[in-house]
Amino acid sequence: MLTTSTRQKTCDLATLAIDLIDQAGCEYGDIRFCTYRNQTLHAHDHSLSHLTDHQKSGFGVRVLLKGAWGFAASYRQTPEELIRMVNLAIEIAKGSRLCQQNPVRLVPVKAYQDTYITPIKIDPFSIPISEKANLLLTINDRLLQYQEQGIRKANSYLQFNQENKLFASTEGSLIEQTIYRSYSGYRCTAVANGDAQSRSYERPPLNLGYEHIDQTDLLSQIERVAEEALEKVYAPKGPSGIQSTLILKPTNLYLTIHESVGHPTELDRVYGYESNFAGTSFATTDQLGTLQYAAPWINFKCDRTQPAGRSTIGYDDEGVPSQEWYVVKEGILVDYLTDRETAYRLGKSSSKGCAFADSWSSLPMVRIPNLGLEPGPIGGSHTATLAEMIADTKEGILIDGIGSFSIDQQRRNFQFGGDGFWQIKNGKIVGMLKDVTYHAMTTDFWNQVDAIGPASEWQQCGTNMCGKGEPLQIAQMTHACVPVRVQNINIGG
After folding, report:
1. How far is 398 from 253, CA to CA, in rounded Å?
2. Which sequence ranges are marked TM in the entry (predicted)?
3. Among 36, 228, 330, 473, fewest CB within 10 Å belongs to which?
4. What is the DSSP string of 308-359?
5. CA 15, CA 437: separation in Å to the nearest integer?
6. String of b and e for 271-287 (b: at least 16 CB within 10 Å)?
7. To 10 degrees, what angle do helices 79-97 and 4-23 make?
8. What would the pLDDT profile of 250-289 be if each residue is shown by its tens digit?
9. Distance CA 269, CA 310 (A)
10. What is the rounded average pLDDT of the residues 87-100?
């Protein structure tokens, strides 16, 4: 939260900006004052290898003049600089009109005067650096107790973020938000048998305070992670050039959801406004309401109100309140991820609130919200626990964690790896594998899911490093999901 004096100064600047934008005859305008604090600690083996704790702040002004966008930003938060940036944004909008084919139009949004703060129990920045460093070194020391068996490297990390944002618009909104985010994990590498293999564990990135850094949980997983790294380095390589049944844990499935459902349903990517980082999308608007994206028992739901979700906020960067909606309902593509501009082009009456900028100096763009796979209903014909899926599989592979991945320029064809792999035979896990990859066409993959986990196995996995745009912007989101079983998937090759 801003101090009272700082908030008043910022509100005065925001009022000045909005008045200037209105006086210039713009159809719309907004301003964001943002302050970001980021703290990261990394430990490598027996030493703290990386420590940053920095803060940056500034403001960005966006105007829509005669159907064209203009944007300007600065770190100097003074009346003189603000006036200069508003005028610059207006001049840029005038220049943009010279090469613009179609004018920008926006769906309406109500005016909001509100405050949102991430509910936390412990401010992560109140914990001494020494305590955090000692936790990481303790983790590494315990991992390296397996050095004689073959563990050669240990790495651990902690990441904390605080974002303060004040948003004002010509619609009449004045919204102040404070977002907290926490993340931790570790990795060890076994070297033996002429090979090197790693295993990882993380407390997933979530919008929580230091209470998310559960030391008991982190320390209790060390023995398992080290032993699995050692087993993995001696394990046989996975099969290649065959089809197999896959059982995917949420720790692996979330990235598949991210790449094959999240990005293809970003409406700016569908329209071709955005084509960096794996291109546009096959899920075009002429297929809305008809495309059999997944099996009829599959539902993908967006929810920016999800407690602790990595993209959970009160409002997006256009002042649109957070909400929830389906993008795939009973297997059918039913909606997209939109901001006010793309929603208007689609013919919708309102935005889904997906506009986000990663900095005061960045333009908002459509970003994936919390997007998850709904659990199977109790008693559903395709609902099964992870244990039941394994017991019901004659031959297959169980995958945990994420590895390498790639996807084509329309998000049709993908390949994913993982971090841990186990061979299943006659309903039992018979040992680890290594170097397994699976690949499929997006709609084939999701239509071949024949079992999904119940709500009791729902996990909030996700990413804090989703890149999009040029210049690059980074966003974060949760892909809460359950285990699934998928039939006849290509392995390796």
Report:
1. 11
2. none
3. 330
4. T-TT--SB-TTSPBP-EEEEEETTEE---B--HHHHHHHT-SS--S-EE-SS
5. 54
6. beebeeebbbbbbeeee
7. 40
8. 999 999 999 999 999 999 999 999 888 878 999 999 999 9
9. 22
10. 95
For the chain, give every domain's residue range.
Answer: 4-234, 242-492
Q: Is it the case that residue 38 has pLDDT exceeding 90?
A: yes
Q: Within 10 Å of residue 93's Cβ, how many Cβ atoms?
A: 26
How far apart CA 303 and CA 305 sit, in angstroms, is: 5
Residue pointed to by tokens 């982190």? 218
Helix (H, G, I), strand (E, B) or coil at 238: coil
Distance CA 61, CA 29 (A): 7
What is the residue type of 382? Answer: H
* Cα–Cα distance for residue pair 127/130, rounded to 1 Å: 8
| DSSP code per residue over 263-274 | GGGBHHHHTTS-
Residue 154 is predicted with a pLDDT of 98
User: Per-residue pLDDT for 493 more than 90?
Assistant: no
Q: Where does 170-317 show beta strands of DSSP type E?
A: 174-192, 195-206, 242-248, 300-303
- What is the model's pLDDT at position 2? 65
What is the separation, in whole angstroms, between the first and last Cα of the chain? 53
Contact predicate 251/400, CB 8 Å: yes
Domain 4-234 has CATH 3.30.2290.10: yes
Q: What is the pLDDT of residue 145?
A: 98
Tokens found for residue 469: 């745009």
CA–CA distance, 432 with 423 (Å, rounded to integer): 6
